[in-house]
Amino acid sequence: MVIIPEAEPYIQSIDVSWCGNKIAELAMLRLDVLHSVISGNKWYKLKYNIEHCLDNDIHCVLTFGGAYSNHLVATAAMARLSGLQSIGIVKGTYAENNLTPTLQSCLDYEMQLVFVTNEEYNRKEDKEWEQLIAEKYNSPFIIPEGGANEIGRLGAGDITAYIPERFTHVVVSTGTGTTLVGIVNSLQTNAFVTGFAPMKGGAYLYEVVKGYIDNDKQDKYLVCDDWHFGGFGKHTPELITFMNEFYTQHTIPLDIVYTAKMIYGLRTQISKNEYPADAKVLCIHTGGLQGNMSIQERLIY
Ligand SMILES: *Cc1c(COP(=O)(O)O)cnc(C)c1O
């Protein structure tokens, strides 16, 4: 059986005075509490992938990620806890004594790490390369980078069970767009969904996602890339100060790569009156807190 999260998601309200009383309600869906590394959206995207392996007597999963990838370590942990082996194809080369905290965690969960050049890594969706890898590693089940496959999107859709009808807007951070697609397609309410992309030029995701969004949902979402803070994985002292302040005010820990940028952007949008006064906004905390290990000494949490 697929492992069950350690805690249930819940909704935490945030006083609207935090954003100048300009909307009617603000709340956060705390998916970060599920598990320390299989947190947030990662558990949802992986669960049917892992279940597929268990149901079909497949003993090993293989996936892809960078040296700070939340997806990579979540896969390592979920595979391990489900009794599966895992292989991680890592972008770039890292010496054994110079691993990132994320890669070290992957090893702790007994993931076999295979380092490849950026060039090789970029062939990850190339069927021929996939075939070679499958042969080399004894036919593992291949999960695309970010869990971006059909059952990944389906699993992400299950997050909508926690989105009450009263919310007019849902905001979620977006990397591959898998979670965004899952939520938009599965949402039974009328809420409009905004995906916050933490990378430069992330608006391209709108087109990527479009191909997977159901026809009757095409006008139900948007991708915003205004708050990348220099690019994916980059940040500024201002962003870290913001995270510490947010934690002091609401006791919610944000992650440096995704959710901090989203919440910063959301507050700016609200302060610029980009949401109607009667808006009820639910932001989704997609987890990823393990990624804060690299800036731990600058955070108060
Ligand atoms: C992986 C991740 C995302 C991006 O999810 P996608 O489904 O790839 O769009 C967003 N937030 C956090 C915290 C993540 O770890």
What does this entry show, briefly?
The chain is an alpha/beta fold. The chain has 10 helices and 10 strands.
List keywords for this structure.
four-stranded parallel β-sheet, 10 helices, binds pyridoxal-5'-phosphate, 33% helix, alpha/beta, 301 residues
Q: What gross morphology would you assign?
A: globular
State the total count of DSSP E strands.
10
Helix and strand composition category:
alpha/beta
From the N-terminal CA to the C-terminal CA, the straight-line distance is: 34 Å
**What is the alpha-carbon Rg in Å?**
19 Å
Could you estimate the helical fraction of the residues in percent?
Answer: 25-40%
Strand numbers in spatial order across the main sheet: 1-2-10-7-8-9
Small-molecule binders: pyridoxal-5'-phosphate
Structure notes:
This protein has 301 residues and is an alpha/beta fold. 33% of the residues lie in helices and 17% in strands. The chain contains ten helices and ten strands. The chain has helices spanning 41-55, 70-81, 101-108, 118-121, 127-136, 150-157, 178-186, 205-210, 237-250, 259-271; strands at 10-13, 25-30, 60-65, 85-91, 111-116, 141-142, 169-173, 192-196, 221-224, 280-285. Strands 1-2-10-7-8-9 form a six-stranded mixed β-sheet. Strand 7 (169-173), helix 7 (178-186) and strand 8 form a beta-alpha-beta unit. The protein is globular, with a radius of gyration of 19 Å. The model has no long low-confidence stretch (mean pLDDT 96). It binds pyridoxal-5'-phosphate (PLP). Pyridoxal-5'-phosphate is lined by residues 40-41, 70-71, 146, 173-180, 255, 258-259, 286-288. Pyridoxal-5'-phosphate (PLP) binds next to helix 2 and helix 7.
